[in-house]
């Protein structure tokens, strides 16, 4: 009897061990890898069948662009119990055979018992080598989808490239300040031979008419980044299909790395973001065009010269000719005189011949003035495109002294109280530039210079003018920017300049992005100690501004903006209690007329307790596009805006907050 009971207990215990020994493992998803495909087998709770199916044919595969392909092609699975379970295979991934690239897929299969296996592989989509032709531009008709073409979206640009009905469709969603990006280019290098003429041809249109740049050259891995075989061709494309062509002579050594580029950055003045269509793109050898034009001059723009200043008609002037190449310009080529001691406009001319007898005559007006009148940048040996908010300057690699090529901007009136200016600048990575501000009378000019190494991104350059007297700063009248290596080509962008903050009884450090202000417990009237910033121009149509500010916790500050003529000044003031963190202070200027706002010229910030010391940081100000209060106080937070209103008499609808919607 005891043996029977013992046997029964052992049987129960054995079953318990078997039950405890069963495990359940959920299916997992493999992580993309470039290693050889792997198979993951997993067990289930089914005690009779614990072996997962086995895959076959899960190997990386290469297919050709534009070919229809089932991602499960060639893959099978078998199970030791259920046999062929291929029909149970599922594939997870995304394949677009119209675009070259590597596409990752995960395959999953299970048997009747619930055992699961997974495997992964890459499907490589590439160009069919048999489609490569003798054409210099491969797939210029886009019959082979996106093959041999690519879209580069650098310098904060964005866009997409697709092919629809054998037409390239480039949707530019963000155009860079750098006119090169987004950039559409060939990916198959071309051989461009010295001494050979070529013709570039293509069809184009756009949803909105805009300008584009077309280049032929060699993309380099380092500065100057690009060697051009022909000068940039700016093409104004319309909303209708048009065929565009241009010819060029390869004057450089034969190059086997030639590429064709279509640049869709900020070129021209409008419609940067639109959809562009291209087709039938080709480059082919062609016959030479007859040279019927004389030398072309550069650096002969009209210009202003200060009374009693100096003028050299040859300074910065160069000439090139299609047949003769570089042509030297000498005094004998110049006719006319400029008397810098007498105000007035003077016309001079440059007459040049090439070896074929072609003549060019260029006229130039030189205005002798008491003070400069233009505010635009003017290029000398550099090409300048003036935009609404910035100026783009393009320069080529040239021989000779680097200081002969520059851009200049006159300053109609400089407020000498200011001892700091902040200059917005974007230069080519690792290229060195010189930014200079100068002034004074002819023969006694003085200047402050700053060397700047380009970063490829926006920089705010601080120029310390404290070495000059206030009287000297009052006479500053000219900005000049140079590239300090004439062997390098590139593009730089000039933004706005502004005065820095000035401290009165407070110490100020301007670093370009913010002003750090330190003050001591000085005693006396608090309004005698403050920091000030002069405004160059204020848009009177704007009735609210936002100041970004960080003050000491619980200390009280006054932020003030004022303007108007001496003896009739007006202002708007806001008290701010510091939080120890960055605050956005909205200032309601709607109590001023538009004309008054247009005359606003000075910011002032005070600490309202002269017995307290501390540090505040002023990040800057901008026109405010958020909620604006009319008869209500607005405090802007990171995620919400708090509005405070008081009990007032009169019509309730006169007090409100408003927020414009840029696009609905």
- Principal-axis shape equals flat
Q: Rg from C-alpha positions?
A: 36 Å
Characterize the main sheet: 7 strands, antiparallel
Report the β-strand fraction as a percent range.
Answer: over 45%
Structural class: mainly beta
Helix content: under 10%
Number of helices: 3
Counted beta strands:
51
Give the termini separation.
90 Å
Given as residue ranges, the uncertain stretches (5+ residues, pLDDT < 50) are: 1-46
Description:
Strand 43 (556-563) and strand 44 form a beta hairpin. Strands 9, 12, 13, 15, 16, 17 and 19 form a seven-stranded antiparallel β-sheet that branches. Strands 1, 3, 6, 7 and 8 form a five-stranded mixed β-sheet that branches. The protein is 5% helix and 46% strand. The protein is flat, with a radius of gyration of 36 Å. The N and C termini lie far apart (90 Å).
Task: Give a quick summary of the entry.
This protein is mainly beta. It has three helices and 51 strands.
From the structure above, extract its key features.
7-stranded antiparallel sheet, 664 residues, mainly beta, 5-stranded mixed sheet, 5% helix
Blueprint of the fold:
Blueprint: H1 2-21, E1 39-41, E2 54-56, E3 61-64, E4 76-79, E5 83-84, E6 90-92, E7 101-110, E8 116-126, E9 149-152, E10 158-164, E11 167-174, E12 183-186, E13 190-192, E14 197-206, E15 210-219, E16 226-228, E17 233-237, E18 242-249, E19 255-263, E20 275-285, E21 296-298, E22 303-306, E23 318-321, E24 325-327, E25 334-335, E26 344-353, E27 359-369, E28 378-380, E29 383-386, E30 391-395, E31 406-410, E32 420-426, E33 432-439, E34 446-453, E35 458-464, H2 470-474, E36 476-483, E37 490-499, E38 502-504, E39 507-510, E40 515-519, E41 530-534, E42 544-550, E43 556-563, E44 570-577, E45 582-588, H3 594-598, E46 600-607, E47 614-623, E48 628-630, E49 633-636, E50 641-644, E51 656-658
Parallel strand pairs: 3-8, 22-27
Antiparallel strand pairs: 1-8, 2-4, 4-5, 6-7, 7-8, 9-12, 10-11, 11-20, 12-19, 13-19, 14-18, 14-20, 15-16, 15-17, 15-19, 21-23, 23-24, 25-26, 26-27, 28-31, 29-30, 30-37, 31-36, 32-35, 32-37, 33-34, 33-36, 38-41, 39-40, 40-47, 41-46, 42-45, 42-47, 43-44, 43-46, 48-51, 49-50
């Amino acid at each position: 009897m005891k043996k029977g009971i013992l046997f029964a207990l052992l049987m129960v215990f054995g079953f318990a061990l078997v039950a405890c020994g069963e495990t359940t493992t959920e299916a997992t998803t493999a992580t993309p890898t470039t290693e050889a495909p792997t198979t993951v087998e997993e067990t289930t709770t089914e005690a009779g069948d614990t072996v997962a199916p086995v895959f076959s044919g899960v190997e990386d595969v290469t297919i050709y662009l534009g070919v229809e392909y089932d991602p499960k092609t060639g893959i099978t699975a078998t199970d030791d119990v259920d046999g062929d379970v291929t029909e149970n295979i599922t594939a997870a991934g995304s394949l677009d055979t119209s675009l070259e690239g590597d596409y990752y897929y995960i395959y999953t299969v299970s048997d009747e018992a619930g055992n699961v296996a997974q495997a992964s592989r890459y499907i490589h989509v590439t160009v069919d080598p048999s489609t490569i032709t003798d054409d210099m531009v491969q797939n210029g008709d886009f019959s082979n989808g996106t093959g041999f073409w690519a879209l580069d979206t650098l310098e904060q640009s964005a866009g997409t490239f697709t092919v629809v009905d054998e037409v390239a469709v480039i949707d530019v969603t963000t155009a860079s300040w750098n006119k090169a990006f987004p950039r559409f280019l060939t990916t198959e290098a071309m051989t461009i031979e010295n001494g050979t003429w070529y013709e570039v041809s293509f069809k184009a249109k756009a949803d909105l008419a805009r300008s584009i740049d077309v280049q032929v050259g060699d993309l380099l891995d380092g500065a100057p980044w690009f060697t051009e075989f022909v000068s940039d061709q700016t093409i104004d494309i319309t909303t209708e299909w048009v065929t565009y062509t241009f010819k060029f002579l390869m004057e450089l050594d034969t190059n086997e790395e030639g590429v064709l580029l279509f640049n869709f950055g900020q070129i021209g003045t409008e419609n940067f973001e639109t959809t562009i269509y291209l087709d039938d793109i080709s480059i082919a050898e062609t016959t030479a065009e007859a040279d019927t034009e004389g030398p072309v001059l550069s650096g002969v723009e009209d210009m202003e010269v200060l009374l009693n200043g100096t003028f050299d008609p040859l300074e910065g002037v160069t000439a090139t000719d299609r047949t003769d190449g570089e042509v030297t310009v000498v005094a004998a080529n110049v006719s006319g005189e400029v008397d810098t001691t007498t105000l007035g406009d003077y016309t001079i001319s440059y007459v040049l011949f090439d070896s074929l007898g072609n003549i060019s005559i260029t006229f130039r007006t030189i205005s002798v003035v008491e003070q400069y009148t233009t505010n635009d940048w003017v290029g000398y040996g550099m090409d300048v495109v003036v935009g609404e908010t910035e100026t783009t300057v393009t320069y080529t690699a040239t021989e000779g002294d680097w200081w002969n090529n520059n851009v200049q901007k006159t300053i109609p009136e400089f407020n000498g109280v200011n001892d700091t200016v902040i200059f917005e600048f974007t230069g080519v990575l690792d290229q060195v530039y010189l930014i200079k501000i100068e002034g004074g009378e002819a023969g006694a000019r003085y200047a402050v210079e700053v060397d700047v190494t380009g970063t490829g991104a926006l920089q705010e350059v601080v120029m310390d003018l404290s070495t000059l007297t206030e009287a000297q700063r009052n006479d500053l009248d000219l900005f000049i920017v140079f590239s300090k290596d004439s062997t390098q080509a590139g593009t730089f962008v000039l933004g706005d300049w502004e005065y820095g903050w000035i401290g009165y009884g407070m110490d100020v450090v301007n670093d370009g992005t913010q002003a750090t202000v330190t003050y001591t417990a000085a005693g006396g009237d608090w309004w005698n100690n403050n920091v000030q910033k002069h405004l160059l121009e204020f848009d009177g149509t704007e009735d609210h501004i936002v100041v970004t500010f960080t003050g000491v916790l619980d200390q009280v500050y006054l932020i003030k903006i004022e303007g108007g003529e001496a003896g009739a000044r007006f202002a708007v003031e806001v008290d701010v209690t510091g939080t120890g963190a960055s605050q956005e202070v909205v200032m309601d200027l709607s109590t001023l007329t538009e004309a008054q706002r247009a005359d606003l010229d000075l910011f002032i910030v005070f600490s309202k307790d002269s017995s307290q010391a501390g540090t505040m940081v002023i990040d800057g100000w901008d026109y405010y596009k958020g909620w604006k209060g009319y008869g209500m106080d607005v405090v802007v937070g990171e995620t919400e805006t708090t509005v405070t209103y008081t009990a007032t008499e009169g019509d309730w609808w006169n007090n409100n907050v408003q927020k414009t919607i840029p696009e609905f």
